Amino acid sequence: MTHKWNYQPITPEQAEASQQLAQELGISPILGKLLVERGITTAADARKFFRPQLPDLYDPFLMKDMDIAVERLNKAMGKKERILVYGDYDVDGTTAVALVYKFIQQFYSNIDYYIPDRYNEGYGVSIQGVDYAAESGVGLIIVLDCGIKAVEEITYAKEKGIDFIICDHHVPDDVLPPAVAILNAKREDNTYPYEHLSGCGVGFKFMQAFALNNGIEFHHLSLYWTSAPSVSHRMLSPLWVKTAFSPTTV
Fold first, then answer.
1. Whole-angstrom Cα distance, residue 236 to residue 225?
2. How much is the pLDDT for 153?
3. Which segment of 91-100, 181-190, 214-223 scores lowest on mean pLDDT?
4. Is the pTM above the cut of 0.90?
5. Which of 223, 182, 217, 221 is nearest to 202 (CA)?
6. pLDDT value of residue 174
7. CB 96, CB 144: distance < 8 Å
8. Which residues neighbour 64 within 8 Å (Cβ) at sequence distance 6 or greater?
9. Helix and strand numbers, DSSP H then E, in the chain
């Protein structure tokens, strides 16, 4: 496969804006240019970029299916169902599992986690993983950084009485899996204002929504976000670095 880069030099208007921004903030013209290319054209926006705050985070309930996902998690905990936190084996997936598992574990003990074997199971939701969940009496699987293409596997799980909540950031196919809720800002019917979240970022938004719904103070969650990766940041990296460097603006 070959790729063709579509390079677009900045316009004269952008060049002027970057120079003005650099002068006003006392920064390098190169940095001013980079900010303008990110769509940050005013000193106020630049200060917000470099010094973000937790209130800058988007409302997690803007994401499609978030209310359904939180309701299903609350139901599982209320009925004392066994919950399995399932994630991909890469850095995004494992940090996502760590974040969600450790956060829920503070309030609920009937929970387990599962990372598929890279060589024996391959990428994504596996039949072996679903069988493990069924044998363990799991009623709800929260899958992170994968699952958006696992139509057959999630259908198989549904036949075994296991519900899925998908937290993914990969581009969906035309047919979505039969999950209870699908949290993915790249859905065609997406309602969330920022689509470039990592898998762990989606998991963070889920836990943020769960915390808000249950009156849990946000700082309990922000402690876990310090280890989470983010992808294709605009406002992401600065807030992550700031709060724990810091949590990411998502």
1. 12
2. 97
3. 214-223
4. no
5. 182
6. 93
7. yes
8. 182, 183, 184, 187, 189, 190, 191, 192
9. 10, 5
